[in-house]
Write the structure tokens for this entry.
Amino acid sequence: MKHFFTNWRTDPVESRREQECPDLTHERNNTRILKEQEAELKAVIINFHIKENSEAHNTDQYEVEHLILKRGQAFDITVKFNRAYNPQTDFITLQFATDKNPHQNEAFTARVEIQDVLLLSKWGMQVKEASGNTVCLSVMSSAQAMIGCYDVKVETKRKGSCSGEISQYRCKNGEQIWFMEDS
């Protein structure tokens, strides 16, 4: 009788999730403390390499604190995480989002994932270098990206995660990237 009630679920979504992810029930019932290497990957800080990227994009003559980039060109950012990045188990996504543009009356969001090959002038990114808790990413923006200011978020998730939990890091202190029209 006890076995019958432990497997009975009233929530059909929860029941379906357990059928698709049998480890989910096991994880719930057997609470465990994750070791350092098993902890969820979380971004701690982002370095936009403002000086280097500004020089590479010929925007270093602008006297502003934000990174100004030309659309359709690659740039580097470095993300420091709470632990070492493992490409076999960790999934990293960068999100670039604008506010509503008064001229187009809409906001824009690009979700950029790690790819094997960067396509010229299309959103994409590659791991340039991973060392310890730090990952340097080469990001390609679209040549048609909306001109303006973008907020940047780093999203991380464990590959094959049934729970769907995403850790999200938003740049602090108003750090943003500006994309300008090519000249």
